[in-house]
Write a structure and sequence with these properties.
GO terms for molecular function: catalytic activity. InterPro entries: ClpP/crotonase-like_dom_sf, Enoyl-CoA_hyd/isom_CS, Enoyl-CoA_hydra/iso. It holds the Pfam family ECH_1. By secondary structure, this protein is an alpha/beta fold. It has 2 domains: 181 residues, 2-enoyl-CoA Hydratase, Chain A, domain 1 (Alpha-Beta Complex), CATH 3.90.226.10; 34 residues, no CATH class. 48% of the residues lie in helices and 18% in strands. A 6-stranded mixed sheet has the order 1-2-3-5-7-10. The chain has a 4-stranded mixed sheet with strand order 4-6-8-9. A hairpin with a 2-residue loop joins strand 1 and strand 2. Helix 1 runs parallel beside helix 3 and helix 3 packs parallel to helix 4.
Length: 225
């Protein structure tokens, strides 16, 4: 379900179930978690095979869940998203075609979301009497603001690439999202990893500033300027 290749500092993670628009089963989520855990490259690039990024959770799995199973499935998805978010290098989501539900939530956990002009994104769970429970209710408002997040989630409406760019849901629209991952792989690896750690730090401001100074000093001590 998840293919992994590494090339020139970029570990490419491909969701590879194109006949099901890369919908995610428990096994697929565990495969993705293991692939991220095993990666050592400074940049991860997550994308989907075929014509979709990811359709979200496989509805055949969701239909069979009882309350305990639903909580466990949500916990698994949350853990995988957190694994992407806390990877010590940069993580780029290349969104080509449809991203729905859990697919949007995985993209939200990435550091940079890059869409093609044909990309569409939607949190469609509300139309099924559900909502995304892989961390999206926290990450979406943090990224686009509370008002836009409520509009997206409560309506379940589909955003095109231009809408997503305007809201800040994606940071770039380009024909070749993989090129953004290559761009990041070309910068200084130590600085990239240090910046990721500092900008993902959720400690109090004073603690962040102490850590920022220490990280900067470490880079200076080892820099070849």
């Amino acid at each position: 379900m998840v293919r992994t290749t590494t090339d020139d500092g970029v570990c490419v993670l491909t969701l590879d179930r194109p006949d099901q628009r890369n919908a995610l089963t428990r096994a697929a989520l565990r495969d993705l978690e293991a692939a991220v855990d095993d990666a050592t490259a400074p940049v991860l690039y997550l994308h989907g095979a075929g014509e979709a990024f990811c359709a979200g959770a496989d509805l055949d799995v969701v239909r069979d869940l009882d309350a305990d199973g639903a909580e466990a499935f949500a916990a698994l998805g949350q853990r995988v998203a957190r694994t992407l978010e806390t990877y010590d290098g940069a993580v780029v989501a290349g969104i080509d075609g449809a991203a729905r539900g859990g697919g949007v939530e995985l993209a939200l956990a990435c550091d940079i979301r890059v869409a093609t002009p044909d990309a569409t994104l939607a949190e469609t769970g509300v139309k099924l009497g559900l909502f995304g429970a892989w961390g999206g209710t926290a990450r979406l408002p943090a990224i686009v603001g509370a008002g836009e997040a409520l509009d997206i989630a409560l309506s379940g409406r589909t955003l095109d690439a231009g809408d997503a760019l305007r809201m800040g849901l994606v940071s770039r629209v380009t024909d070749d999202p993989r090129a953004v991952a290559d761009e990041l792989a070309a910068v200084d690896e130590r600085a990239l990893r240090a910046l990721k750690a500092r900008m993902r730090d959720d400690a109090d401001r004073e603690t962040q500033e102490v850590r920022e100074r220490a990280a900067f000093a470490d880079l200076i001590a080892n820099a070849d300027l």
